TrEMBL record:
<dbReference type="Pfam" id="PF17189">
    <property type="entry name" value="Glyco_hydro_30C"/>
</dbReference>
<keyword id="KW-0732">Signal</keyword>
<dbReference type="InterPro" id="IPR033452">
    <property type="entry name" value="GH30_C"/>
</dbReference>
<dbReference type="GO" id="GO:0006680">
    <property type="term" value="P:glucosylceramide catabolic process"/>
</dbReference>
<protein>
    <recommendedName>
        <fullName>Glycoside hydrolase family 30 protein</fullName>
    </recommendedName>
</protein>
<feature type="domain" description="Glycosyl hydrolase family 30 TIM-barrel">
    <location>
        <begin position="124"/>
        <end position="224"/>
    </location>
</feature>
<dbReference type="InterPro" id="IPR001139">
    <property type="entry name" value="Glyco_hydro_30"/>
</dbReference>
<comment type="similarity">
    <text>Belongs to the glycosyl hydrolase 30 family.</text>
</comment>
<dbReference type="GO" id="GO:0004348">
    <property type="term" value="F:glucosylceramidase activity"/>
</dbReference>
<dbReference type="InterPro" id="IPR033453">
    <property type="entry name" value="Glyco_hydro_30_TIM-barrel"/>
</dbReference>
<feature type="domain" description="Glycosyl hydrolase family 30 beta sandwich">
    <location>
        <begin position="380"/>
        <end position="466"/>
    </location>
</feature>
<dbReference type="Pfam" id="PF02055">
    <property type="entry name" value="Glyco_hydro_30"/>
</dbReference>
<dbReference type="InterPro" id="IPR013780">
    <property type="entry name" value="Glyco_hydro_b"/>
</dbReference>
<dbReference type="InterPro" id="IPR017853">
    <property type="entry name" value="GH"/>
</dbReference>
<keyword id="KW-0378">Hydrolase</keyword>
<dbReference type="GO" id="GO:0016020">
    <property type="term" value="C:membrane"/>
</dbReference>
<keyword id="KW-0326">Glycosidase</keyword>
Amino acid sequence: MESLLVVALATVASAWTYSPNTSYSATISVDASQKYQTMIGGGCSGAFGIACQQFGSVGLSPAKQELVTQILYDENIGGLSIVRNDIGSTPSTTPGDVNSILPVCPPTPDGPFDYKWDGNDTCQLQLTQTALKYNPNIYVYADAWSAPGCMKTVGTEDNGGFICGVRGSTNCSGDWRKAYADYLVQYVRFYEEEGIEVSLLGAYNEPDFNPITYASMESDGYQAKDFLEVLYPIAKAAFPNISIACCDATGARQERNILYELEQAGGADLYDIATWHNYQSNPERPFNSGGKPNLQTEWADGTGKWNAYWDVTGQLAEGFQWALYMHNAFVNSDTSGYTHWWCAQNTTGDNALIRLEYDSYYVSGRLWAFASYFRFARPGSVRIEASSNVENVYVSAYVNTNGTVAIPVINAAHFPYQTTINLNGIKASTATAYLTDNEHNVTMMGQTQIGSTFQVTVEPRSMKTFFLS
Ligand SMILES: *[C@@H]1O[C@H](CO)[C@@H](O)[C@H](O)[C@H]1NC(C)=O
Ligand SMILES: *[C@@H]1O[C@H](CO)[C@@H](O)[C@H](O)[C@H]1NC(C)=O
Ligand SMILES: *[C@@H]1O[C@H](CO)[C@@H](O)[C@H](O)[C@H]1NC(C)=O
Ligand SMILES: *[C@@H]1O[C@H](CO)[C@@H](O)[C@H](O)[C@H]1NC(C)=O
Ligand SMILES: *[C@@H]1O[C@H](CO)[C@@H](O)[C@H](O)[C@H]1NC(C)=O
Ligand SMILES: *[C@@H]1O[C@H](CO)[C@@H](O)[C@H](O)[C@H]1NC(C)=O
Ligand SMILES: *[C@@H]1O[C@H](CO)[C@@H](O)[C@H](O)[C@H]1NC(C)=O
């Protein structure tokens, strides 16, 4: 059964397309006078020791370690800019876990706190440094899955539990909230000493979910208020420019609940960026974050086999589908960026953007969806109004800080659309088109002189980004 499926996939090289005798047309309107969110970018993670696979632990040669990282982060290839690092909570070196900077927990919250930096961070430092080589403006998101065990009700990094000191916490030797806040800030300090700025700091990963088997910690919005009111001032005093995240819930709805309760508890100002994952629910509408930005900080299909396709079966790990997920988040929920789960992993599953197999690597169509947005809508760009008059052509638009404009268009039809793009409030004289479909990976297709309107063809089942300068 399984081998038949593989044969079927291999022979059906691409989803169908056709050229109808009538020409289908669409009109897109882009209006720079209507502005929305500022973009942060796209990214991925090397948490749980997976960064070590990107840096040779399963046989990837040093040259390919560089190449794979360059493919992800180079402005002219993958275009990513976010690295999400796991602030480890494991007291010893354990395969598949991330080392804690506090290997020995003191008996009480008064200390002593003997922080240790191993100059490695379970290969996440090397991932961050190498990404910085190819993109000097990496946005580092340092995020803890759990506090060290001694600071929690369960006494261990696994099994969920609460931070000792928040409402509802029992079985505690004291109030460990300040100790946990200091610990998170110390991690940022170690990166600063390596010359790397952490842009965003998070104390939680999926606090609505208790997986038992790996580092995890629970919290609702009220309990988050009890901790964030300690963390926020301590972190800002140490690093005035740092942003504080809340709270990496498993889904957008779960995140909304936490944000709502945080506000009910009086903690609406104790975070800067609403961070959420897309596993258990989709964003669908604006976040209740009081105007603060929101960022999708982790997602992958996670259950399927490796899937590198752009658009073959319509399965949700395909690149074309990811282009639409991002479109919907950016347009319907004002989401500022999108972070895939792992960057590069030695695997036969579909959790990573790049699959490693010893010294070989394979790039997924998902990365080309990220690249079609983020090579052109760079960090700091501002989304502007863009709409299409037909349901199966999706458009968004972004103005970069230097005035250039990116217009990613997705054609979900199986036939081409002759498209008129009308511009309002944009001064540009040239449009360059980059196509991604089953045969093209963000390939430059041509350049044309433009006025306030221009005509283009958008190929079937493709994403075509128009870069205006
Ligand atoms: C296009 O027109 C030709 C000639 O009339 C016809 O044979 C063909 O089936 C048409 N194709 C489509 C997709 O309608
Ligand atoms: C970092 O630590 C891992 C083990 O966790 C090791 O395999 C790797 O070689 C180290 N990297 C560096 C750059 O020292
Ligand atoms: C209470 O804490 C102790 C020590 O940290 C731990 O061994 C025990 O499992 C905890 N009990 C519960 C119910 O979590
Ligand atoms: C904070 O950011 C500003 C503007 O980017 C920069 O000039 C300043 O040096 C930063 N301050 C610190 C403490 O990093
Ligand atoms: C690396 O991937 C291959 C399959 O692609 C698998 O057989 C091997 O066990 C993996 N090795 C590790 C250490 O994960
Ligand atoms: C596009 O990338 C895919 C992997 O995502 C690769 O298999 C294919 O050869 C590339 N095609 C071109 C034209 O570069
Ligand atoms: C403007 O910024 C974009 C995105 O970073 C870059 O690709 C482009 O070269 C810049 N253009 C000019 C004229 O500086």
